[in-house]
Design a protein that fits this description.
Elements: H1 3-18, H2 28-67, E1 73-76, E2 81-87, E3 91-97, E4 100-105, E5 109-114
Antiparallel strand pairs: 1-2, 1-5, 2-3, 3-4
């Protein structure tokens, strides 16, 4: 390093400390990253922390609904236990008591308690 470059560097530091603009402006790409980098990082973190896990959970629930069939015991979102007796395009017919059948939308099936034909192993 020569004395001229050292003195130029020192003058830039002093000018920045005093609030005056530096003699050589920063490059445009670096300035853009300094301004919008944190925002971009937050968007990426938001996607990986919130959106991606929710999409995965939604896909698993759709798979669960597609595998349901008559005879499966399910828990509805309302907290009612029942057994699927019939399957329609957009809903299930669920028996919740002897002689009591209700039609529920597919999305209200929360979880499967026991699949038809599954043995009770303890």
């Amino acid at each position: 390093m020569t004395i001229a470059t050292i003195s130029n560097f020192a003058l830039q530091i002093i000018a920045q400390a005093e609030g005056a603009p530096a003699s050589q402006p920063a490059s445009g790409g670096s300035n853009f990253l300094m301004q919008f980098g944190p925002i971009i990082l937050m968007v990426v973190a938001f996607y990986f922390l919130l959106i991606a896990p929710q999409r995965k959970k939604q896909k698993e629930h759709q798979k669960l609904l597609s595998e349901l069939d008559s005879g499966d015991q399910v828990l509805l979102a309302s907290g009612i236990f029942g057994e699927i007796t019939n399957r329609k395009d957009d809903r299930f017919v669920v028996r919740i008591a002897d002689g009591v059948k209700v039609e529920v939308a597919k999305n209200f099936v929360q979880t499967v308690i026991k699949k038809k034909g599954a043995s009770d192993q303890k």
